[in-house]
Amino acid sequence: MNDKHILLVEDDETLQSLIKKLLTNNNYKVSIAINIDEAKKLVKLFIFDLVILDVMLPDSSGLSFYESTIKNRIETPVIFLSALSDVEDRVIGLELGADDYIGKPFDSRELLLKIRKNISKKETLDVINFGNETEFDLKKEQLLFQKQNINLSSNEVKILKLLINNSHQYLTRDLLNTELGLDYLSRSGDMQISRLRLKLKKECKLNDIIRSVHGKGYKIFI
What pTM, to 2 d.p., does this model score? Predict the structure, then answer.
């Protein structure tokens, strides 16, 4: 069974349904967003192996969403969907750093080939190296120091993944509490980050890799 998870951001219900059926028939796990607001919520919850992103969406441009939210995530390949006539959008997307594009209408075989090609390029990029012989495997959810497993709680794993996938910005307390299922005013998330920082310092010899800024939140430096 294929465990690859794809985010499809497409507001056209007919095309969305066709692509989802194609992907699920080829054993991909698929999450659907019909607009940018939904897509933003999903990318906070999951680490996607690939994003298929329509350029024209009802609430914003796919190009803007890519530049503000996806571009700085840890090696998430993006395939833009655009009308064949929209040459300028395709050029802008590729210039911004998108991995590929496919024009509408398209052949299902071509889309599957592009998906496989871009996911295979990412396969070796699921391990984040922190230096000092420390690495974190995003898929296996394992933290290793000198090839030895460092025990993390489920919440510590979730926090580390949240920090990595939001490494281009600060992780606010509100977002942290929401993702951990904590009360809005809870300080438990702060305490769990403190424990994670201490564990990284004691067991991985990593000092000050997770930093906090008053009024902004937490940020990991990798």
Answer: 0.62
